[in-house]
């Protein structure tokens, strides 16, 4: 498994976060290079949504999983910021949703090995 790094070749989420030319994913949230806390994360739609609104918030740096987070002020701020961005987006786009849910994968149940916060506004989508 890849370790924490500025970016990892072949990581689809690094490509999205760094706006690689091959990536066509539209970002819902990114304020690069404006304030020190807002150049840390980006948000975009889950390609396989399971709810009315289903967004992912990811750090721009490659952090594989929650197990790679440390009990430092920086990491604490990063996670708080990811949650805040997710809440702001759902409050903005789905203010009347019955419920907002937020969650990280718990390893080894990871879909993509780049830390991401799932942000869902219910109802769930019928499959
Ligand atoms: Zn990555
Ligand atoms: Zn996931």
From TrEMBL:
The active site is at residue 118. A motif (Histidine triad motif) lies at residues 114-118. It comes from the Eukaryota. One of its GO terms (molecular function) is nucleotide binding. Residues 12-127 form the HIT domain. InterPro entries: Histidine_triad_HIT (IPR001310), HIT-like (IPR011146), HIT-like_sf (IPR036265). PROSITE patterns: HIT_2. The keyword Nucleotide-binding applies. Pfam families: DcpS_C (PF11969). The keyword Hydrolase applies. Keywords: Hydrolase, Nucleotide-binding. Transmembrane segments: none annotated. PANTHER family: ADENOSINE 5'-MONOPHOSPHORAMIDASE HINT3, APRATAXIN-RELATED. This is HIT domain-containing protein. It comes from Miscanthus lutarioriparius.
